[in-house]
Amino acid sequence: MKKNLLESIDSPADLRKLSPNQLKDLAVDLREFIIDIVSTKKGHLGASLGVVELTIALHYFFNTPTDKLIWDVGHQAYGHKILTGRKNSFYTNRKLNGISGFPKIAESEYDTFGVGHSSTSISAALGMAISAQLQNKKQETIAIIGDAAIAGGMAFEGLNHAGVSNTNLWVILNDNAMGIDPSVGALKEYLRKTKIGVKPKQDNIFEALNFHYEGPIDGHDFKSIFQAFEKLKSIEGPKFLHLITTKGKGLQKAEEDQVLYHAPGKFDKLTGEILPTDTSKLPPKFQDVFGLTLTELAQKNKKIIGVTAAMPTGTSLKFMMEKFPERTFDVGIAEQHAVTFSAGMATQGNIVFCAIYSTFLQRAYDQVIHDVALQNLPVIFCIDRAGLVGEDGATHHGVFDLAYLKCLPNMQIAAPANEVELRNILYTVSQGINHPIAIRYPRGRGNIINWKKPFKKLKIGKGKILKEGNKIAVLSLGSIQNNVKKALNLLKESDEVAHYSFLFLKPLDEKLLHQVLSKFNCIITVEDGVKIGGFGDAVLAFSNRNNYKNKIIKLGIPDVFIEHGSVEELQEIAGISPDKIKEVLKNQIEK
User: Fold this and answer.
1) Is 138 a catalytic residue?
2) What would the pLDDT profile of 155-188 be if each residue is shown by its tens digit?
3) How buried is residue 177: exposed, middle or buried, by Cβ count under 10 Å (0-12/13-18/19+)?
4) Is 247 designated active site?
C-alpha cells in the first residue's frame, strides 16, 4: 500500500524534500484530500482540481514565500492552502472563524495578495516585481491567471505595462476554456487554436506585448512544467507560460460537467454524484425568478436585451440565452464593458437588463456614473447577490450597492422584498422607464412558492404598511423585511410595533415617511446594506430636512468588512438577525 505523502507535508519546505518521482503520487493524495473535504463541507471544487500539478510544481520549484505567488480570483487556491500549513484546518474552509475560501494576506505569509475578484493578479504581481527590483531583492514573482480572467480589461492593462518593463515577472496562464461558465470572446477563440507544443500560427499576441512566450504545454505533466520553468528562469524580463489544463481533473463527473462542479455543494466523493436534495417544495431562487421572468417578458417584447458579465448560469440569464440567443450577451469577465455596452444599446431604443452581482458591479462604478447616470440612459441593472452572501465572505458580500448608487443623480433603486415583487418590478420597468434603475435582490431562496402570478404594474417610489402599531415603527427595505416579520413573531409586545415596507430607496415614499414621522417618536430602520450612506441615512436625512425630532435607530451592516460564515451567522454578527432585531425592539418598548 502506497504511503500517503500528503500526511508528511506541512509546508513547501517539506514538499521540496520529496524526489521528483514522488510528485505524481502526491498529486493523487492532494486531489483525494480536496475531494474528501469539499464533498462534505462544500466549496469551489473544479478549479482547484485542475491546478493540482501546477500548484505542487510551483511550490516545489520556487522558494516560496520569498518568491511570490499571486493567484487570480482564488477559486483554484485550495491546493495552495493545503500545502502551506493549512491542511489540518482546511475542514474549516469558508466556515465562521475558519480559513477563507480565497487567498488572504492576514491568513498566511504564503498568501501574498488578497483576491476574490477577477483579473487583478498581473497588476499586483507587477507592483511586487518592480518593488523587488527597486529594493535589490532576489525574488521571483509569479501571477497565475485563468483564460477567462485574462480577457478582463485590467489584466490587459497589467500586460501592457509589464511589457515595457524589464522586471522579472512571470505570468502563468491556466487555460481550461472555462470561467464559471465556458469562456467567451475572440481571445478564447485565439487560445483554442493553440495545440500543446505548437505556437499559434498567427502572430503571438503575448510576444507582441514583449513577453517571452513558452507553450502551450500540458499542465498536468510535471516533466513539461519543470522544463518550461527551467527555461524561463534563465531569461530576463517578463515571461509568459501557457498551460492547458482540465477543470475538475481527477473526478470524472467534474470533468464532464464543469459548470455544475465549479461549486457543486455536497456530493459522493467516490462517484461524484451530487447528493440529492428535494427542492420541489421549496420557493425558487431569486436568480431563477429573475431569469424566468425576463425570458417570459422577452417573449412578448423584442426590444428586451439581456447582458451579463460571465455569469449566465449564476444570474440565470441562461434561460433567456437558451430561448433568445441573439438578444442575450455574455461579454466575459468585463463588467465595465458590460455596463457601457448596455448604455450603447439603450441609446438605440432597446430595453436593456444588465445582470451583474452586487460585489462585481463595484468594478464598473465609473461606467455606471459616467456612461449611464450622467446621460440618464434607461439601463436596468439587475443586481444579484445583494446583501450578505455567506461563505464567500468579505470579497463577495453585496452590502455597498445601496450606498454607492444612492448618491448618483438620475439613478432609481428598488429592493423587492419577495419573489412576487421582483417579478412585478421587472414587468413594470419592461414597460418603459425614463431613468436608469437598479433592482437588487439577495442570494438564495425567498418564501413564496407560487410566485408566477399575473403581472401587476407597480408605482415607482411607493411603500406600504404591513402591520399597524402604536409605539414604535420599523421601516424595512427589501428582503430583510422577512427578518423583521420573524422578530415581531418572537416579540410578546409586537402589537405595539408597526411595520412599514419600502420597495424603493430612491425615490423614497415621502408621503409615507411624513405619516410615520408624524405618528411615531421612535423609528427603527432595517437594511442588509452598510449603515453609512444607506436606507437609514436616507430616512434620517429626510427627517432632518423636514425638522422632525424623532429618535431614529439604524440597523444594518456596521463599518467593518464582514468575514465568511452562513448568512444567518453573519446577520447575527451584524445585528440584523430576527433575534437581534427583536432585542432592539424590546429595549425600545421598555424605554
Assistant:
1) no
2) 999 999 999 999 999 999 999 987 788 888 888 8
3) middle
4) yes
